[in-house]
Amino acid sequence: MLFAGSTWIPKLLQEFHTTALGGHAGVYRTLKRISQSLHWIGMKKWVTEYVATCMVCQCNKYLASSPQGLLQPLPIPGEVWEEISMNFIFKLPKSNGYDSILVVVDRLSKYDHFIPLRHPYSVKSVADVFVKEVVC
Question: Domain span at residue 25?
Answer without folding.
Answer: 8-60
